[in-house]
Design brief:
The complex is a heterodimer. By secondary structure, chain A is of the alpha+beta class. Chain A has helices at residues 2-20, 78-87; strands at 24-39, 42-48, 52-58, 61-69, 95-103, 111-120, 123-137, 140-147, 160-161, 164-165, 172-180. In chain A, a hairpin with a 2-residue loop joins strand 3 (52-58) and strand 4. Chain A is elongated and about 85 Å long. Chain B is mainly α. Chain B has a domain at 100-241: Four Helix Bundle (Hemerythrin (Met), subunit A) (Up-down Bundle), CATH 1.20.120. Helices cover 61% and strands 1% of the residues of chain B. Chain B contains 8 helices and 1 strand, in the order ααβαααααα. The chains are: A alpha+beta, B mainly alpha. Strand 7 of chain A pairs antiparallel with strand 1 of chain B.
Amino acid sequence: MNFKIHALAAIWLAALPALGQKASQWMLVQSSLTYHVSSPVHQVNGTSHEAKGKGVCQDGHCNFLVAAPVKSFDSGDSNRDLHMLEATRGAQNPMVVVRAQFSETDLQQSTIYADLDVQFAGQTRHYSHVPFQRQSQGNEIHITGTVPSTCSDFKFERPSFLGLLISNDIPVRVDAAWKQM
Amino acid sequence: MDLKLFKSMTGVGVLLFAFLVPQVSPAQSSPSNSPTSSSQAPQSSPTAPSKQKPSASSPSLPSAPSPAQSQQEPSLQDLGFGQSQLQANPALQARLNKRTEMLKIHQRLGIITLAPMVAALITGPTAKVKGKDGQILKVPSSTNLDFHAALGSATAALYFTSAYYAEFAPRIAGEQKRGAIRTHVALAFIHGPGMILTPILGAIAFNQEQKGEKVHGIASAHGAVATVTALAYGASIVAVAWPIRLKFWEKQ
């Protein structure tokens, strides 16, 4: 009897490190990614709801991946969307891919500070310590924030309209609901 | 007792195996971080980021992750996008580039066309100028008429050249026109025929005046048709720019 108790205790002690390493997985269930473009005569928002994403947290670190087809961004004008696709080399590089890394403890905080690697228009750009607001809803978390991207970050020519160049800033608003699997 | 000990040890072994194996399998099941699968992707490689310097940009993706990283980092292939969505399409990119190039010329010529068009509209009524004695000349001077006709001809030449670049810009498969561009295109059904009709009516009016006749019949609609055409043309330019939100005061 004594032996059995010791054996069971040994099992649990041996299993504890394994339990600690267990990865938690997250899936993107709903999202909108919205870029904002401004010029002296225009304010344009283009939104994609076709992003897919997955996140894995393990050993205290979280790695999240979100990707969306460039052509899925809709600004409400097909001509402008095609021009955006051309300007950002969207046929050659059809996906915008964002990798986020942050501490697993951040998942319990109201603000997550993530390091982002954004792959877009054939370029990869790193953004450090980007704040995202987190809200819990059941077993889902709702994350909102803005990626401070610019045209020059991704080395594409700023489009112009009526001879007026758009602003270099093209912030991308992220609004995403993640569900733990 | 020996049998019980053996059973207990076997149980411990099985349970430890059961605990440890699931920790490894989900991440290992992802084949995407291998260099071969990533090379099939259209963009350089959907592998994990390296320890890049902050704010540094690079033309290619970061290097492959270490084995420890690759076990936990999701990959692009995990997300379930179809291969067609991930595939680069150089032919489409070339078509888009050509399209943009032609539409930029269309835009520039279209705006330039406004100048002679407005000038022609202004010189049209003033073709009937006052004579030296202050009376309205029934037959306008040939100088005024020639100037007006030259402006009209320049307008037509620029207009149709601009229209050529819009009409023959490559079409993109699956494109469905949405938004302001629809109004822009719809208005072309007004100013397009107007741009054909206006010079014809102008030529008829010119001939009638050359014969010393008062402009009559269908030629008398020359001014009205020209005005409607110009209004539709202006609306077309505004439509494609709509909605206009002036923010000149904001620092660019």
